[in-house]
Amino acid sequence: MSEHVHATDEEIGLFAYQVWSYKQGEMVSLLIHLGDRLGLYRAMRDAGPLSSHELADSTGLHERWVREWLQGQGAAGLLTWHDDDRFELGPAAASVLADEDGSFAAGAFGSPPTADYIDDLAAAFVSGIGLPYDRQGPAGAHRTERMLGPWSRLALVPRILPALDGVVAKLEAGGTVADVGCGAGVALVAMAQRFPRTRFHGYDISRHAIARATEVVAEAGVDNVELHEAGADALPTAPTFDLVLTFDCLHDMTDPVATIAAIHRATDVDGTWLVKDIRCAPRPRDNLKNPMAAMMYGFSITSCMSSAMSEPGGRGLGTLGLHPELLAELVADAGFTRFATHDFDEPANLYYEVRP
Question: Measured on CA atoms in the order 144, 68, 292, 301, is the torsion positive or negative?
């Protein structure tokens, strides 16, 4: 029998601090969501140091609540807390928290899960069956829209599509594109505006996503986008599309093999499939190199793996489950013959150019 080893008071104190720091992160996350939702960050952008009264006046919010929020953000180091109790959103903070054309991250801090959603997640640990994406309600589609919007405008059209062999020329001439797992349609709209001669089809099994995409397309006034509340099984069975897109969704699917096969059938013989998926390693322990790995596994339990396990026999890849070697194997098994990896120095994502 091994001898019981006791931790020192210092070791216990340090570990307790680590645990409570995650609770602090939970609270700060909620304050970030409120700051984005209520327009507080946007009101502070380029405004210099502000008192709680000045910020409350400019936003129409109650001063006492604004004051407590400012002090919490100052304590978290997200705002500069000046000696005169005025608060300032610095340039880097403005880019991350207020500028949707910058390195915007505040949109990822959506409403926290409801108690019944967490109850259902706990039940999934017993049954093995996860929660479908729509179980998150409209908030899931909205959160994805806020996260993808800046990327669609600033990276997809000007940087990523031009890196693909011959794709831009086809779209400029007038092609046909499918976005499988199109979400709220922000990428579709960005491409439809840039390539008015091309016809874009968005597919998503989420009724909340398609409902929001319908609004986004109408607000943009584009007439070359058609939306389908359906998955990859609704794709044409004959070669049709010059370009097929799957953005951060293949690992969420219960049957990615069937999706890949459907995409192979629907892609034109000279077409391209662009996959954007999470940067990860074949050996899970190697994901520890990513300083955000714990957050990624949290996303997986609450959304990605849960969705991928939402039907009996679901593949359950999860957020960090579709590494380059596995994807190369799956696409080759489906009949694709060309596979190239593109690294655009995005911390979270890799891109794959797949061709028949």
Answer: negative
CATH topology of domain 9-98: Arc Repressor Mutant, subunit A (1.10.10)
Q: What is the CATH number of domain 115-355?
A: 3.40.50.150
3-state class (DSSP) for residue 269: strand
The predicted structure's pLDDT at residue 114: 87
Contact 43, 70 (CB under 8 A): no
Where in the chain do CATH 1.10.10.10 domains reside?
9-98
Strand pairing category for 267-278 and 241-247:
parallel
- Assess contact for 150 and 100: CB atoms under 8 A: yes
Distance CA 64, CA 68 (A): 6
Regions of the chain where pLDDT drops below 50: none
Strand pairing category for 199-203 and 241-247: unpaired
Range(s) of the chain covered by CATH 3.40.50.150: 115-355
Residue 2, pLDDT score: 56
Place of tokens 């004959």: 238
